[in-house]
Amino acid sequence: QIFDYFVLRISDSHKKVKQKALDVLAEITGVLEDALNPVIIGLVEGITNNLNSKDPRVHAAAVKALEESIAHLDKVALMKEFSYQWSKLSGQALLDVTERITVLVEWVYPRSPEVVQHYALPVLWSFLGNKALPVRSANVRAVVTKLASALYKVMGSKLK
User: Fold this and answer.
1) Is 39:7 a contact under the CB 8 Å cutoff?
2) Nearest CA-CA partner of 75 in 104, 118, 106
3) The pTM of the whole model exceeds 0.85
4) CATH topology of domain 1-73
């Protein structure tokens, strides 16, 4: 119940409230770890919605919260949720989440290859189908290359 209100603070219209909520989330993620798994969907949605913030402090806090979630939360559930949120994103947020999916591929594939095939491969196919063209960044090619390389590393010729 507490996190229902906490997620609202992550989505607050005031930049300082958002930033502080994201900073606190990054701090408590390591302490609460698996206890956060039941609220992972709301937390990931709140974090990813702030990745396109024009305020550099809010963006930095969202990235830090994203990193802490990868370090301490269920990676299979994160990959599923990142993939779901990815389809709703644009701009820098699209690239930030793709980079995190790339990090998760190597960890998730040995434990659950079907999750990678069902959630990470569509991200790659979407990029190859020009989903990311509206992203105004020179990093698109590098991000897609890293994802393709990570998938090829774990899947080998199955990727074809």
Assistant:
1) yes
2) 104
3) yes
4) Leucine-rich Repeat Variant (1.25.10)
